[in-house]
Design a protein that fits this description.
heterotrimer, A alpha/beta (282), B mainly alpha (299), C mainly alpha (276), B: 299 residues, mainly alpha, 2 domains, 13 helices, flat, C: 276 residues, MetI-like fold, 12 helices
Chain lengths: 282, 299, 276
């Protein structure tokens, strides 16, 4: 789907993939207003519209307080929107469910279960027979390189390892849509980049529709097909990322990516362009 | 891989931000801290319904069991104030006639005993706090004493100090002292050494550090320990008196029991509970100042 | 070299020093009392007295004409221990079952909690020991009475503990489970109950400690046998020596039970990361 269009159209801005695949996840005029009982109203989300293609990887980026976590919460069905609606495959969202998998910012892995039992959890809830779910769980543990740790308890794992276990869990559950809320925010740079690679590795197998929240510009550019900028509850800009896949470490260090980073940083900062020293702006 | 990819900016918004979406951090804090009248009303109504259910259950049980086994709530309610000054069972025995004097006697003992015990406990607790060696030596002794339930000590105190009141007082003081020492020790153990180190780097000498870092950390734990001791001491006093005392509410209980006055016994129990609860609330209010800096959920 | 070995066992040595201190003070006080007062030796017998004389004297609680001997003394102790430990264990188990069950039931939804929690808090405010006259009147010296009393006390303590533990469950685990497709009953079974287990066991341990005192008090005033009853009997004989024997036995039991409980807790919560 994507390979051909990228290699063919090196110099021409390719048409977005809209005509090729359906819209998997759609936010239509979504608003969220929090009310304190004193009567104050705080608008977390203001008329947000977003259409995510099937198989697209969208990053939502914004400063703290821009509403991105609320956005994810609404998409996951953990909080109801006060106006507008969220549609998955055209059907409105009514609460959390296995069709929208979530990787949270904090450690959500169940401390009282071993790694293997954690990864099995979604399958257990779906009443998948034991042998089958063991097999699927082990498969996914292998994908995140945690197969040696299947009988460990979370207390024996590092932060990065716990995150990988959660990613394996969510992927094993085979959701329609993947939602991730700054999952690598608390990790050091080395672990973070390693996990980004691993995530893309798994993602490439099935091309799940993904919405990934972050405040890290480099991360957004590295991972996404499209970047959405949010500020103060509103979508302020969108930019397509036409870097080729698979995204390699070389690409991370390339000028191409650096230029893109500058543009996104500029959009974040609110200026049209972020001045680059010694290079043409594309 | 030189892609001159034109990463298109698809959309840009030029509208200014909404006025109500100001400084999110502050507003979020207000969202969390706001007092909700609706929620308070919910709690009050819930409590009232709950108490109502309790009284109803009592009434049903009373009807089922009969007035000799369990008097009805209204019967007990009607004698609540009367028995302070006059009770048939008590009148035959002594001049006072009601449970009022007994309640006063017992309350006095509890309050004095806890005060005394707290003082002793604080003294020992300080020694533990200030000296690591004292801490280690006393720790095992404390663990041993802690394994003895306070009531096991009751007969000893009654033999050593008699049943005339001193024994009960000292028993309560003993229990309060133990509670305070245990809590003081816990406070010292849980004190993050970084605070003392920080103070040292800011130039505080040993005595200053003790005064400004160690002691203030002590205080809330000790206050908590005293509160627990206070709560349990009412029961200890009653049992100690039941074991042999000429005065006090425990003694009144003995007389009421032989006279099979269940309604008066229940009324007396309610009175003790009320006094205990009032003392507890007052204590919290009085010590609130000293615990004002303690963050929530600091166990 | 000696010093280095000494410093390694420093903690252990100091602990022994503490225990030795207590016993030392005991002996010293006993001797001082005996020397100073006419009946001083009755106020606080020495340690030897307790073991060599009081322990055999326990036999006198067995039957009228029993001769003092170590064996019969120990038999009497064990016999009465039976009662005490039984009341404790059965009462605590029953109370835990009722208390935790009730606590979970109350936590199901907010309205039920708002209604049922306040009356329970109210009952919790009644000094437990003050209820003895009531239970005594209702049950006399029947076994049921003491067990019911212990169960009631434990249940009251544990209901609140359970409700609080459920309220403390971290929202993220619940949300995570829901996004993985957990239904409400599965949520309770696989998330809420495992996560409250440590707090529940901690509360149970505290309740266990209190229940020793409760059983003792019940045996003081509502029983015809048991260690508490023996303690009171010894008191009427003004025999501090025998009282001390009973207390020491008591302490040993509670230490053993505590150790067993700790072991169970460690196994049940082996997933718990070390804190502090």
């Amino acid at each position: 789907m994507t390979m051909s269009s990228q290699s063919a159209d090196a110099t021409v801005a390719a048409e977005p993939r809209q005509t090729e695949s359906a819209i998997k996840l759609e936010l239509s005029h979504v608003g969220k207003v929090f009310k304190t009982e004193r009567g104050d109203a705080y608008t977390a989300l203001d008329d947000v519209n977003l259409a995510v293609q099937d198989g697209e990887f969208v990053c939502v980026i914004g400063p703290s307080g821009s509403g991105k976590t609320t956005l994810l919460s609404v998409m996951a069905g953990l909080t109801p929107a006060t106006s507008g609606e969220v549609l998955v495959d055209g059907k409105p969202v009514r609460g959390p469910g296995r069709d929208r998998g979530v990787v949270f910012q904090q450690d959500s892995i169940f401390p009282w279960r071993t790694v293997l039992r954690n990864v099995e959890y979604g399958l257990e809830m779906a009443k998948v027979p034991k042998d089958e779910r063991r097999r699927i769980a082990r498969e996914h543990l292998k994908m995140v390189n945690l197969d040696q740790f299947e009988h460990f308890y979370p207390k024996e794992l590092s932060g990065g390892m716990k995150k990988r276990a959660v990613i394996a869990t969510v992927f094993a559950n085979n959701p329609e849509v993947l939602l991730m809320d700054e999952p690598f925010g608390s990790l050091d740079y080395g672990t973070k980049t390693e996990l980004q690679r691993e995530l893309l590795g798994i993602w490439m197998r099935e091309r799940k529709t993904t919405v990934f929240i972050t405040h890290d510009v480099e991360e957004a550019v590295f991972l996404a097909d499209r970047i959405v900028v949010m500020k103060l509850g509103r979508k302020t800009a969108e930019i397509e990322v036409l870097l080729p896949r698979p995204r390699t470490e070389e690409l991370r260090l390339s000028e191409e990516l650096a230029r893109l980073r500058h543009r996104v940083a500029g959009l974040l900062a609110g200026t049209d362009v972020f001045p680059v020293v010694g290079g043409p702006l594309s | 891989m030189q892609m001159a990819s034109r990463n298109k900016v698809i959309q840009r918004s030029t509208a200014p931000p909404r006025a109500s979406a100001i400084r999110p951090g502050i507003l979020l804090a207000r969202v969390r801290a706001g007092i909700s009248w609706r929620r308070t009303a919910e709690r009050v109504i819930g409590a009232l319904v709950g108490f109502g259910l309790l009284v109803l259950a009592w009434w049903i049980a009373a009807n089922y069991l009969g007035p000799e086994r369990l008097p009805a709530p209204n019967d007990v309610a009607s004698i609540m104030f009367r028995i302070l000054s006059s009770s048939a069972a008590l009148q035959s025995q002594e001049a006072s006639g009601g449970i009022g004097p007994g309640l006063a006697y017992s309350s006095e003992h509890v309050l004095l005993g806890v005060a005394l015990g707290a003082a002793i406990g604080i003294f020992i607790g300080l020694m533990i706090g200030l000296s690591k060696v004292a801490n280690e030596i006393l720790s095992s002794a404390i663990e041993m004493i802690r394994a003895i339930p306070p009531l096991a000590a009751a007969p000893f105190f009654l033999i050593w100090f008699g049943t005339s009141g001193t024994g009960q007082l000292l028993l309560i003081a003993f229990y309060a002292a133990v509670m305070v020492v245990i809590n003081a020790r816990a406070a010292v153990l849980h004190l993050d050494p970084v605070h003392e180190a920080f103070a040292a780097t800011l130039g505080a000498n040993w005595w200053q550090r003790v005064r400004t870092v160690v002691l203030p950390a002590f205080v809330p734990e000790v206050i908590g320990g005293i509160r627990v001791a206070l709560g349990f001491s009412w029961g200890i006093e009653v049992v100690a008196e039941l074991l042999g005392s000429q005065q006090g509410i425990g003694h009144d209980f003995v007389l009421l029991s032989t006279a099979l006055q269940v309604d008066e016994i229940i009324a007396a129990i309610i009175w003790i509970s009320v006094i205990a609860a009032v003392v507890d609330r007052l204590y919290l209010v009085m010590t609130a100042y000293f615990t004002r800096w303690v963050p929530a959920r600091a166990q | 070299m000696i010093l280095s070995t000494l410093s390694r066992y420093r903690k252990l040595l100091l602990s022994f020093a503490g225990i030795a201190l207590v016993f030392g003070l005991w002996e010293a006080e006993a001797y001082w009392l005996a020397a100073t007062y006419k009946y001083g030796s009755d106020l606080l017998p020495t340690i030897q007295h307790v073991f060599s004389i009081s322990l055999p004297q326990m036999a006198r609680f067995g039957s009228e004409n029993a001769k003092d001997s170590f064996l019969s003394g120990i038999v009497v102790l064990l016999d009465h221990s039976r009662y005490t430990v039984l009341r404790l264990v059965v009462g605590t188990a029953l109370g835990a079952f009722i208390g935790i069950g009730l606590g979970l039931a109350i936590s199901i939804n907010r309205p039920i909690r708002l209604v049922l929690e306040p009356p329970i808090l109210l009952v919790r405010n009644i000094p437990l020991l003050a209820l003895i006259p009531l239970f005594s009147l209702w049950f006399g010296a029947q076994e049921v009475g003491k067990i019911a009393y212990v169960a009631f006390a434990i249940a009251v303590m544990l209901v609140i503990n359970t409700v609080q533990a459920v309220a403390n469950v971290r929202a993220i685990y619940v949300n995570y489970a829901r996004t993985l497709g957990a239904s409400a009953p599965a949520l309770y079974r696989t998330v809420i109950i495992p996560s409250i287990l440590p707090e529940l066991l901690a509360g149970l341990k505290v309740a266990l400690g209190v229940s020793w005192a409760i059983v003792l008090a019940a045996e003081f005033l509502m029983a015809n046998e048991g260690l508490g009853k023996l303690l009171i009997l010894a008191q009427t004989f003004f025999d501090v020596g025998r009282m001390l024997v009973i207390v020491l036995v008591f302490v040993v039991y509670s230490l053993i039970l505590n150790a067993v409980f700790d072991r169970i807790t460690r196994v049940a919560c082996k997933w718990l990361p070390a804190t502090k």
